[in-house]
Design brief:
The chain has 6 helices and no strands. The protein is mostly helical. It has 2 domains: about 35 residues; about 160 residues, Up-down Bundle (Ferritin), CATH 1.20.1260. The radius of gyration is 24 Å and the shape is globular. About 25% of the residues are buried.
Amino acid sequence: MSVNYRIGAVALTVTIALTVSVAAQQPAHQDHAMKEPAKISVPAMNDAEFIMMMTEHHQGAIEMCKIEESRGSRDAVKALAAKMRDAQEREVKEMASSPANHANMPTMAPDAKGSAGHEGHGSMMQKHHQMMQQETMASKKRLEIASGAAVDSTFLEEMTKHHQGALEMISKAKLKDASLRKLSQKMAADQKREIGEFKKLQAR
């Protein structure tokens, strides 16, 4: 075997080994990069649909607040999380006791295409529900794997996105019950104010 051949073979072996090593490392790195769920248009919800979806959305926020309260390191962020949890737990109870909760049943089943081939309301509701669940799970996962000061910063970032989702649901809801409309307006005002508080805390 010539010297040039042996050198070429060694170089090829090293190149292959390095390529395999890099390829083996990539999935482990990519596992930490959680993709954002594809955005779905928020449907116009009736009273019962709004209560069902917002209750579940609140429950996701409550769980995230509990993580911040138990693992966060900044007193100001933990105090805000506790305040938000208390408020959203009260709102969940208010929605559960609302007469509008039983006024019309939520429409979640997939249905035929609507006029001009547009997607039906039931299908839109189902897709939005799935997207909402995926977004909440992704936010909780990011919060759960964070440590130290990153718990607080991750909470503020993820809760900002969570609140923005709630505000979009509120803005597009078609609510008939006056007390439910009033509650939704209070939710919107509170969450807009809280987003402002998040920004101030992130800037410190």
